[in-house]
Amino acid sequence: MSRESEAKLPGGVLPGVLSESLHAELVAFRRDLHMHPELGNQEFRTTAAIKERLEQAGLRPRVLATGTGLICDIGIAEGHEGERPAPPLLALRADIDALPIPDTKADCPYRSTVPDRAHACGHDVHTTVVLGAGLVLADLHAKGLLSRPVRLVFQPAEEVLPGGALGAIADGALDGVGRILAVHCDPRVEAGRVGLRHGPITSACDRLEIALDGPGGHTARPHLTTDLVTAAARVAIDVPALVARRVDTRAGLAVTWGRIESGHAPNVVPQHAELSGTVRCLDLDAWRDAPDIVHAAIDEIATLHRAKSEINYVRGVPPVVNDRESTELLRRSMVARRGMESVESTEQSLGGEDFSWYLENVPGAMARLGVRTPGDRMVRDLHQGDFDADEHAIAVGVEMFTAAAQLDDM
After folding, report:
1. CB neighbour class for 7 (10 Å; exposed up to 12, middle 13-18, buried from 19)
2. Cα dihedral value 147, 153, 154, 159, nearest 10
3. What is the largest CA-CA distance in the chain?
4. CA-CA to 84 of 20 to 30 Å: which in 14, 40, 314, 368?
């Protein structure tokens, strides 16, 4: 018997395929979340909606100590007598927060009703997928068809560095967990498919803020002062090049600026300049060394131009590094549900994701969930105000997670 056949019902069919009625309910749930986006650590309405639906299914969700986000166990107390230990939990994680950008979709009945707030990264889809999987697994448990306990993790503040995952972990989200799985929407992948990769699938992402100061003066006499605009320009140009040359090129350590400000008048050398940006890295070891490398490069350039520097290096998240066995579990689960053609390889991205913090503690994997309507040739991306998802992806994610819960033999 193949591993894909384990946990199948007589006749070779995995139980728990999403029904049309539940899919319709989940689409409505996702659209409600989409219309009412909430920023990190403010997801009170979202948390209440998830909690209410899980309780309707007879489950006992627990809201996290921060007041938003929740965890919910399915089948954890089932029949382990005497000295026999309970099997480790399989955790399914969703992030529930939105972004501080406007929803620019036109003629969309479920566009955001909150000004300058949007689910432009697909977290509403992630949440709905894990909720749907929980409802299906709860039904399987009630029928005696769930062979291992599962934990649902609805995490707040993924978009807030260093990520709400750390708070969820501190609040016990990983207690008793042996493996954790997640999805992230990918508009490059067609709905009905997932992208998988063993090893790093995202990059590390930190935030960098620099203040440069000097005595200021008149632009007629820059030699008598610190030419702060030139100093800021050299930091902006030279630091990324220096940093890239001080690590293995394959580490992909990159400094990219998003803001630079200095001065108010054309004939005045300013006393203050500011730069801010991100530090991204493909390699976990290089990410751990990145603060020292970046600090040294900034100090070197600032000193050369006689500018005093103050550096605020904000640690973000390490790369998401998919465990081989967990990635294979996701592959087998998709093949069992949707066939071989439903899985494709994916590349490591330079985006950051705080799911990485869970993988610092337990093995797991993240899949890229296809949300592009088949046949749509328009190039789309995340964190855009017009982002939307083909809602067929909800059923795909639910079925992959429910199959994983039945095929996982950890």
Report:
1. buried
2. -140
3. 87
4. 14
pLDDT category at 321 given cuts 50, 70, 90 is very high
Name the burial class of residue 406, with classes exposed (0-12), middle (13-18) and buried (19+) by CB atoms within 10 angstroms of its CB.
buried
**pLDDT classification of 1: cutoffs 50, 70, 90:** very low
Q: In this structure, which amino acid lies at residue 122?
A: G
What domains does the chain contain, in order, with CATH numbers? 3-201+319-407 (3.40.630.10), 204-317 (3.30.70.360)
Lowest mean pLDDT among 232-236, 363-367, 376-380: 376-380
For residue 78, is pLDDT > 60? no
Half-sphere exposure of 36 (CA within 13 A, CB side): 13
Element (H, E) at 381: none
Residues 6+ positions from 69 with CB-CB distance below 8 Å: 43, 47, 63, 96, 154, 155, 156, 157, 164, 167, 168
Q: What is the pLDDT of residues 188-203, one digit of tens each?
A: 999 999 999 999 999 9
Which are the contacts of 230, defined by CB distance < 8 A and separation ≥ 6?
A: 222, 305
**How would you label 57-85 residue by residue, b for 16+ Cβ within 10 Å and e otherwise?**
bebebebbebebbbbbbbbbeeeeeeeee
- Predicted pLDDT at 207: 95
**Which residues fall within 8 angstroms of residue 25, CB to CB, at 6 or more apart?**
none
Burial of 350 from C-beta contacts in 10 A (0-12 / 13-18 / 19+): middle
Token reading at 176: 């008793």
Please report the sign of the dihedral spanned by the C-alpha atoms of residue 151, residue 121, residue 359, residue 42: negative
- Helix, strand, or coil (residue 236): helix
Give the helix/strand (H/E) hosting 386. none
Report residue 86's pLDDT band, with 50, 70 and 90 as the boundaries.
confident
Q: Which H or E run contains 66? A: none
Inter-axis angle of helices 20-35 and 123-142, nearest 10? 140
Partners of 182 in the beta sheet?
A: 93, 366
